[in-house]
Write a structure and sequence with these properties.
single chain; 111 residues; mainly alpha; globular
């Protein structure tokens, strides 16, 4: 992609924002932050689908599975388990949005 606009890097930027929000949600008790984390994941998935980001659904599945394995380790401190949980929430929502759109409105150029 030769586009040098901010939108050329939107998925990467949103991924970093989503991971940061997930880490914050792990430490700040809130009823709204989990919704913000999930919503940011959905936005990331929609933009990834719209841009035709290759492999986004598979990558998010790999992240969710990997993060689940890390989260379930009994020797992790609680703070790490909480951070991993919310990053997993973010990735699951991103994969969900990109996956649903990929099924309902597939992009021809994405294998």
């Amino acid at each position: 992609m030769n586009d040098e606009s901010i939108f050329a890097h939107a998925v990467k930027i949103l991924f970093l924002i989503g991971a940061a929000l997930a880490a914050i949600a792990a430490f700040v008790p809130s009823n709204i932050l989990p919704w913000v984390v999930g919503g940011t994941g959905i936005l990331t998935g929609v933009i990834a689908w719209w841009q035709g980001t290759r492999g986004i659904v598979v990558l998010m599945i790999v992240l969710v599975v990997s993060l689940s394995a890390i989260r379930d380790q009994f020797f992790n401190p609680k703070w790490l388990t909480d951070v991993v949980f919310f990053i997993r929430v973010y990735c699951a929502h991103a994969g969900l949005a990109a996956g649903i759109l990929g099924v309902l409105a597939p992009k021809a150029a994405i294998p």
